[in-house]
Amino acid sequence: MKKNLEEIKSTAIQQISAATTLDELHEIEVEILGRKQGSLSLLLRKVPSLPVEERPEMGKQGNIVKKEITQLISNKQKEFENAEESEEFFDFSAPSPKPKIGKSHPISQFIREVEDVFGRLGFDIADGPEIDDEHHNFNALNIPEHHPAREMQDTFWVKNLKKHVLRTQTSNVQIHFMEKNEPPFRIIAPGKVFRKDSDATHSPMFHQVEGLMIDKNISLANLKFVLLSALRELISPDLELRFRLSYFPFTEPSLEVDASCPICGTNGKKECRVCKGTSWLEIGGAGMVHPNVLKNVGLDSSQWNGFAFGFGIERQVMIRHQINDLRQFYENDLRFLEQF
Ligand code: DAH
User: Fold this and answer.
1) What is the position in ligand 1's atom list of the atom closest to the CA of 208?
2) What atom of ligand 1 comes closest to residue 289's alpha carbon?
3) Which residue in 23, 73, 207, 297 could disulfide with 313, CB within 3.0 to 4.6 Å?
């Protein structure tokens, strides 16, 4: 009888593990545990007819095997049910999840807009090297070797490349462009610039956009018209400009350009977080191109003249989106970037 019990157990194990459907499993269960004809039930029914001393042990063994088989069946059943459930969960007709689509960085977005707006004013887009020689970054722009203006722009010098710098300003593009092209022309040159400077409003790498227009009889009035038209489109339709006299080596006269506050206009409110009541925000420098700069690229300043300007990009984007820490632009935190 003990031998029979072991046989029943080992066939049961085999059959249960080989079952491929719930129905099959159910049939196996009836075959073994079925009350009337189940092989194990039949065997256990014989226990009372065994000699008295064998009965308790056989009874005990029989019940253990019964428990084991019941457990195996119920495990297998759960397996089938889980599989069924996960199949049910997969809905073939459901629309597929939307792919995550990347987008431009807020700085790039703004640069595209700048290119678009100036493009409609007839400006071409030019670019120049980010690692440049001293000549294009300084000398040709009328900033000679010991000129204090060099110190205003904390320069990164390139170690193994003599007299080369990470450009401190996009003004270098003026020189590259004028060396290769004959006037008349108007260009803008957006790009990265580098200075040893780092805090909440300064980054060692930031962006500028340079502008240059060379033609005949250009005046500050042309500069004003171009800047006003462009900035009204870019920032606010009722933007006003204020020019203050300033100094840059590459322009004469030189101007500091202020734009009216995009929140309070020219009536600055004390509590305004953008202008703090001053109404005006400094946005860049500009001026009439210095005759020395024209001479340095071989242009005759008695024939040609023009204006130039240079604006920081980050600041405009910070004002537009009310961002107060510039470093967020470069941390690549998607929670920040996805908002734009
Ligand atoms: N290059 C200047 C700077 O980085 C900005 C600038 C001022 C550019 C006046 C110009 C200009 O073209 O005319 O501070």
Assistant:
1) 4
2) 13
3) 207
Distance 256 CA to ligand 1 centre (A): 9
pLDDT in tens, 204-237: 999 999 999 999 999 999 999 999 999 999 999 9
Pocket test of ligand 1: the residue of 132, 143, 165, 171 to mutate, having most ligand atoms within 8 Å of its CB, is 171
- 22 in Cβ contact with 77 (< 8 Å): yes
Both 122 and 60 in a single domain?
Answer: no
Instruction: Among 55, 86, 117, identify where a domain stops.
Output: 86
Report the distance separating Cα 120 and Cα 98, nearest Å: 36
**Ligand 1 pocket by C-beta < 6 Å: which residues?**
169, 171, 210, 248, 251, 285-287, 308-310
Is 100 a domain residue? no
Quote the CA–CA distance of 173 and 171 in Å, as a whole number: 5
| Residue where one domain finishes, among candidates 52, 86, 120 | 86
Q: Which residues contact 136 (CB under 8 A, 6 or more apart)?
A: 128, 129, 167, 172, 175, 176
Please check whether residue 272 is in contact with residue 263, taking contact to mean a CB–CB distance below 8 angstroms: yes
pTM across the whole model: 0.72
What domain count does the chain have? 2
Backbone torsions φ then ψ of 287, nearest 5 degrees: 165, -175
Q: What is the tens place of the pLDDT at every residue in 40-90?
A: 888 888 888 888 888 888 889 989 999 999 999 999 989 888 877 766 677
Peptide bond into 184 cis (omega under 30): yes
Query: How many Å apart are CA 117 and CA 188, to the nearest integer?
Result: 11
Closest atom of ligand 1 to 174 CA is: 12
Co-location of 18 and 147 in the same domain: no
Range of the domain at 144: 106-337
